[in-house]
Amino acid sequence: MELTVSHSEKYLDPFCSLLASYTRKTAKLREQADMLDYRQAEVERLESKVVTPLKAYGDIVENKRADLKRCNADRNRALKELQKLEKLRQKNPSDRQKFIPLLFDFQAEVNAQKATNNAHRSTRQLEETISDFHRQILEDIKVDFITVEMVFHAKALEVYTHTFQNLDSMDIDKDLEVSHYCLVQTGIFSFLYKSSHSSILQRQRGVEEEVEEEYESEIEAQQSRLSYASQYTQILRQKN
């Protein structure tokens, strides 16, 4: 029993740390793939059903060690009472018929029997407690952790199976036909857009050329009017 408590105290703490590290790494994996909502459920189950119960075993082991100390104390007390009774019997073997030695002998026997009964009762209770404690550890480790992982991977298998069925049912030839049609339509629209854009540019250039020609004609007309006015002015000066 003492070996069970010692092993539990020695190995449960690093095992709990290992599972906590596993949960943290699983949480990091969840953060890298937020689309997997079931990864969040897995992390929460691990924290609530595996890591948290194992953390509580620190106090439980301390309590079991205290129970073990009380059991050992009862055993030592019973052993001392038995040794005292044996010494008392060996001390006055010829006076056992006398009243006072007999009274002491009877009291020692009562004390020894009482101490022995207490030791047996403590030992039996401690054995049951350690057995339950050991069973609970195995259940927490075996049932909860494995169940959580099985639930997650079963759901992951369900998702991947559904994805595989969708991919398997895909008609590749039809998909390529649709893709080709989209490419052709995109090419036609692109051609129409380029043709329309080219026509607009041509019309815009024609309008700009017409405006430019009208502007040049107006400038030439203004220059002609100025030239006529200058000639008329010179003629008037010559007459005067």
Give the number of helices: 5
Overall mean pLDDT stands at 67
Main β sheet profile = none
Radius of gyration: 52 Å
Pfam families: FAM92
InterPro entries: CBAR/FAM92
Coiled coil: 61-88
Keywords: Coiled coil
Task: Give an account of the 3D structure.
With 240 residues, the protein is mostly helical. It folds into two domains: 2-170, Substrate Binding Domain Of Dnak, Chain:A, Domain 2; 174-240. It contains five helices and no strands. It has helices spanning 2-32, 37-55, 57-91, 99-168, 172-239. α1 (2-32) packs antiparallel against α2 (37-55). The protein starts with a helix and ends with a helix. Pfam families: FAM92. Keywords: Coiled coil.
Helix and strand arrangement:
Elements: H1 2-32, H2 37-55, H3 57-91, H4 99-168, H5 172-239
Helix pairs in contact: 1-2, 1-3, 2-4, 3-4
Task: Briefly summarize what is shown.
The protein has 240 residues and is an all-alpha fold. Helix content is 93%, strand content 0%. The chain has helices at residues 2-32, 37-55, 57-91, 99-168, 172-239.
Q: Key terms for this structure?
A:
240 residues; mainly alpha; Substrate Binding Domain Of Dnak, Chain:A, Domain 2; 2 domains; 5 helices; 93% helix; 0% strand
